[in-house]
Write a structure and sequence with these properties.
Blueprint: H1 3-24, E1 34-40, E2 43-49, E3 53-54, E4 58-67, E5 70-77, E6 80-88, E7 93-98, H2 112-116, E8 126-130, E9 144-152, E10 160-169, E11 183-188, E12 200-212, E13 215-222, H3 228-231, E14 232-238, E15 241-247, E16 264-270, E17 288-292, E18 298-302, E19 306-314, E20 317-329, E21 332-338, E22 364-368, E23 374-378, E24 384-391, E25 398-403, H4 412-415, E26 430-434, E27 444-461, E28 476-485, E29 492-501, E30 510-511, E31 525-541, E32 555-556, E33 558-565, E34 572-583, E35 589-590, E36 592-593, E37 595-597, E38 602-604, E39 626-636, E40 639-645, E41 654-661, E42 666-672, E43 690-698, E44 709-710, H5 738-756
Domain DUF7042: 136-269, 520-679
Transmembrane segments: 735-753
Domain DUF7043: 380-427
């Protein structure tokens, strides 16, 4: 305890020493040093900054670092003190704000905070451009080929729209990976009737880009301009709407507020001309419409040679990427990626490919391919690169894949090298799900009582909730949460957040709802009582909740959460969050829902009950809270995954589940927030993408027709009916045929007889 005061004193001394060093030895960071051009108050200004001083401001006295890109300095020249704050946008662009000359009493040394307190917070930022700039890559700012219509708000009020006006920002061949995309061209065309419009081409070098909220700024330098006030310009785009772009008419960025309200405005349209010939074929069962869960649920169209992916960054906007199959080895496919912005002309080669030209106006470069063939690339051609896809053979309505890095080099051994996938030590495949999925047999089937945990639990979908009281002639013996997969094909999961169980005088199942669902196939079957945890647990969809009391004529012995996959084909999963269980004096199942059994199906009726020995399906007159169709399942990284489809889900129609069998009649499941399961998501708890977890216990009764089923997804490609095992008792063992056994037995008997003699 005696050392503690000494330790605190030492910390205070160290802090004081640090402050003195900052105030006494102010060293300007290397990134700020150099010769900078700015346009201040209508005047061209050159500012020189070295390690200790700034022109017209004197020597640096103090420095304060707010962030790595935001610093404040205190300068002194004679008796004047200046506060200057720098925003480091790129290595080539700074923005500053500062005070004028402030004087203080003789021998008084003001602090940085004291001088900077006089800085006007509403003061505009002055943009400074590095005269010895280093060009930056333009891909993050603008890429591709665009047609544009332009308007100069200070010259004319109309809009000049000429079909020949284009912005071209494309990579230039040079090094191994051709990443030197540091320039772009703007070709202006004069419009008839607008005398202020002009024609000509300007070439700009990119100086870097930065974001301020949703505005995307980037600075450029005109490579053909020697006048400094005409050399530097700023552009602004909006990250949600890339069809408009603003352009400054002076070397300033602060005048740009939004693309639409800029002094010079572009209205752009991407131009595309794709003539790349395919060189391989995709699997036939990939053809169709899909949803890419790894890319904001983008729409994907696949045929035998092309993959067309459409994303929707904002309402009413879409961006399209086209992949063309070029080469395939085993399960890896090298695809030519035609980027979302701009247009492309075929990289034509002599021989099998047709050479494409653009009216002789475009210069064509020629280089040698890896096999010695000529490859031509036209000037102004948009960004076209190559990317590798590794596909797992399709199963159910799921395509699993992973995608490598984009490269400009057309070489399979380089593009499809496994090191290009950048998966790390722990990874799993991305998913593409069929847009119109075909239900399959659920891997978990049966009837389960479940409990749920999580922030997004299952709730009733009945508006206003379930009537709490009274329910005439119904006495609820037990309220449970029910999950059932009991349709004939076991392809649908039914979930009821509040489920009241009772029986009539004959011990037959009764309920206030009659049900008859459309049967689909599920991979899990059985009847389970489950417990759920997580942020999105199942809750009853009965509006207002399930009636607690009184329920005339029904005594609820136990309330559980029920999950069932009980149909003959095990294609449906039913979930009841709150289900009431009871039995009559014969030990038969009783519920407030009446059950009507027929010879081929199990349906629900509000009045009559009839049992047979075959199967169970439900009538469509009333539905459970949730009906989830099983789309597909598989096993990966020692975990079992299931994809379900719910048309009524307001967040995502597809949901990913992790499921695991915990005991003979217990199953654990966790549902993800979206259509893709996090690599670290487990069945044990919420977090890592899990919205709700279910702890399910089968509660099948004597007269139930809902057998439990479980498939861990080890072989998702097996045919329907492959779960039937045929035992051949007359064919010998696995390793010995009957003839071998007969000969062996005869030999042993003869040897024993010979010893007796």
């Amino acid at each position: 305890m005696k050392l503690l005061p000494r330790f605190l004193v030492l910390l205070v001394l160290l802090a004081c020493i640090t402050v003195r060093e900052i105030q006494g030895n102010c060293v300007i960071p290397f990134l700020l040093r150099g010769s900078w051009f700015s346009f201040e108050k209508g005047t061209n200004t050159i500012t020189e900054i070295d390690g200790t001083s700034m022109s017209d401001h004197g020597t640096c006295v103090a420095l304060k670092v707010y962030r790595y890109d935001y610093k404040a300095f205190l300068f002194r020249r004679d008796e004047c003190y200046y506060c200057v704050r720098f925003h480091i946008r790129t290595v080539n662009v700074l923005q500053k704000s500062g005070t004028g000359c402030y004087t203080f009493k003789e021998n008084y040394k003001p602090s940085l905070e004291e001088v900077c307190a006089e800085l006007d917070r509403n003061q505009g930022l002055v943009t400074m451009f590095n005269e010895n700039y280093v060009p930056k890559n333009c891909r993050s700012a603008i890429e591709g080929v665009w047609h544009f219509a332009y308007q100069n708000r200070f010259s004319f009020t109309g809009e000049c729209n000429h079909p020949g006006a284009k912005i071209q920002s494309c990579q230039e061949p040079g090094n191994q990976f051709l990443i030197a995309n540091q320039k772009f061209n703007i070709s202006y065309k004069k419009c008839e009737g607008i005398k202020e419009s002009f024609g000509g081409t300007k070439e700009f070098s990119c100086l870097g880009d930065w974001f301020i909220e949703k505005n995307h700024f980037f600075a450029v330098a005109n490579t053909k301009e020697s006048r400094k006030d005409e050399k530097y310009r700023c552009f602004v785009r909006n990250r949600d709407d890339d069809l408009y772009m603003g352009h400054s008419i002076t070397p300033e960025c602060s005048v740009l507020k939004t693309p639409e309200n800029s002094p010079f405005r572009f209205r752009m349209t991407p131009v595309k001309l794709e003539t790349v010939n395919p060189g391989c074929l995709l699997p036939k069962n990939f053809s169709g419409e899909w949803v890419n869960t790894a890319h904001t649920e983008a729409d994907v169209f696949i045929n035998q040679t092309h993959i067309i992916e459409t994303t929707y960054p904002d309402e009413g906007r879409f961006r399209k990427t086209i992949y063309v199959c070029k080469e395939q080895r085993d399960n890896r496919y090298m695809m030519a990626r035609l980027n979302i912005d701009g247009w492309w002309v075929l990289v034509a080669r002599e021989g099998p490919w047709e050479v494409e030209r653009d009216g002789g106006e475009r210069l064509t470069r020629v280089k040698k391919g890896r096999n010695g063939e000529d490859i031509r690339m036209s000037d102004g051609e948009g960004q076209k690169d190559y990317v590798c896809f590794e596909f797992v053979p399709r199963h159910h309505s799921i395509i699993r894949f992973r995608k490598g890095l984009e490269m400009i080099l057309e070489d399979f051994s380089t593009v499809c090298s496994y090191i290009q996938f950048k998966s790390g030590r722990e990874w799993n495949y991305d998913l593409m799900l069929a847009k119109d999925p075909v239900p399959v047999k659920c891997p978990v089937a049966g009837k389960f009582n479940f409990t749920q945990k999580g922030e997004l639990r299952f709730e009733t979908r009945i508006l206003g909730g379930v009537t709490k009281s009274p329910w005439d002639h119904i006495y609820c013996r037990e309220n449970i949460s029910d999950l059932s997969v009991c349709d004939r094909d076991q392809k649908e999961i039914w979930i009821d957040a509040h489920y009241c169980i009772s029986v009539d005088a004959y011990g037959r199942h009764t309920d206030i709802y009659s049900k008859d669902p459309l049967a689909v196939k599920c991979p899990i079957a059985g009847k389970f009582n489950f417990i759920q945890r997580g942020e999105l647990p199942f809750v009853t969809r009965v509006l207002g909740g399930v009636t607690v009391a009184p329920r005339p004529g029904i005594y609820c012995k136990d309330n559980i959460s029920d999950m069932s996959v009980c149909d003959d084909a095990q294609k449906e999963v039913w979930i009841e969050v709150d289900k009431c269980i009871s039995m009559d004096h014969y030990g038969r199942h009783v519920d407030i829902y009446s059950v009507f059994y027929t010879t081929n199906s199990w349906s629900l009726s509000p009045t009559a009950v009839l049992y047979t020995t075959n199967s169970c399906s439900l009538s469509p007159t009333a539905d459970p809270d949730y009906k989830l169709k099983c789309v597909g399942y598989w096993k990966e990284n020692l975990q079992s995954y299931l994809i379900t489809y719910d048309e009524l889900d307001p967040y995502s129609k597809y949901r990913c589940w992790v499921y695991q069998r915990a005991d003979l009649n217990k199953i654990l499941m966790s549902q993800s927030v979206g259509p893709f399961c996090n690599l670290k998501q487990t069945v044990l708890g919420t977090g890592n993408g899990a919205a709700v977890t279910l702890n399910m216990v089968e509660y099948e009764r004597e007269h139930d027709r809902c057998p439990m089923h479980f498939d861990d997804g080890s072989n998702p490609w097996k045919e329907a009916g492959a779960n039937v095992h045929v035992f051949h008792f007359t064919g010998g063992t696995k390793y010995f045929s009957p003839s071998v056994l007969t000969i062996l037995i005869a030999f042993v008997i003869s040897w024993l007889l010979s010893r007796k003699t």
